[in-house]
Amino acid sequence: MTNWLPDLEHGKGPLYLRLAERIETDIAEGILAPGTKLPPQRNLAFDIGVTIGTVGRAYNLIRERGLVSGEVGRGTYVTDRKEPVLDQPVPRTEAFGGTRGPTAEPGKIRLDSTAAIEVGQSEAMARLLAGIARQFPTEISSYSRTLPAAWQEAGSRWLSAAGWVPEPSSIVPTLGAHSAILAVIAAVTVPGDRIAFEELTYCSAARSVNLMGRRSIIMQTQEGSLTPDDFERHCAQQHPKLVFLMPSLHNPTAATMPEDHRRAIVEIARRYNVWIIEDEIYGSLTRHEHVKLAELAPERTFHIGGLSKSVAAGVRGGWVACPPHLSARVLTAHKMVTGGLPFLMTELGAQLVNTGEADAVSAKVRAEVTAREAIARSMFTGMDFASQPCSPFLWMKLPDPWLSGTFKSAARNEGVLIDDEDEFKPGRSEKVFHRVRLGITVPATREELSQGLSVLRRLMETDNASYDSYS
Which of 114, 167, 337, 436 has the least C-beta neighbours within 10 A? Predict the structure, then answer.
């Protein structure tokens, strides 16, 4: 065992993080060689004058980084981290990107996305872009170093719902909802913190959390939505710093959280001092009919929305309404995470909203989504699925003996791309839902959509024996 003692006089941040970083530095510099046994947590805590919990958090963090290994009763040892051999194959991207490939296959009917339907919005976008180029010739060719009031006003207007209107000063414009999520996480958590996700969710957020050194914890749901009892149990046992929720038109279950559950979850978050991310990217499709968590708990809720599902995904327009004292911090974190806002696209998103063009486009998108959802509902009459008239996807229960991954592979082989249930699991889970998500917005026409849905219906009615090899 080494007699190593860390120097924690220098550095910033919590003690456990400074301790973890000191261990990592000393390993990198060879002070702690491979095979070295670190001091027992209780001994080190006494020697450096901290609690055993502080040492435990630091050891857990460096274990997650792959720097040490060990087990109870045996001790914690520095691992032998070999430099990678250059001619080794590149690791598969699925470890980072879920069950989808990094790019969509050409020639397939895409039912694996929920981007806004093309309803002619490009005409309005072209007109506005031409005006922006004339009005801001210098700004569009340089870095964005200011925060125009019109950008915050657009966010306030777009996120407003059911009588709730966020203060423009609390708004941070972002490169879409995903970058807003990452900015919030970077702003209010540190590596090693736990972030709670529902057992099915928007998993790009969960995977990004893991890449950022945070830890995901998975909460059980009922009827596709988090229950207050399970949330409180996880708060009491695992102490998450933040919870990520999609309370309206949840992805992928299409569930909407009841109002009494929203109010209970807010009170639990207050008791346990948990931040809340309220992802309302589908909120504009539901017409914002439900009370918002941000209205119930403005002091701890980050309310996120954008244009990708109801106006135009390519604009990358998004906004987050922050607790008032944290908007500047989130703005800085967003710049650090993304490199900053491009003036051209951010101005375009703001003008789409402020001129009313976004509302007009969104109304057309909602109408087309409703028509397509009716087509899908009719196509799968008699089958078990979850949806809403305004939902851009169906959460389809597969008939026996289909498995989710096998069905996805069979559909791909028949020319249709869909998402299996594993795409939405934020971590390893033994729970099986036997479901797939079917997006209905990307096919260029209703006829193409019907063609893809017909393929899936035929597969569901087929004995899957000939497809077993695809799983």
Answer: 167
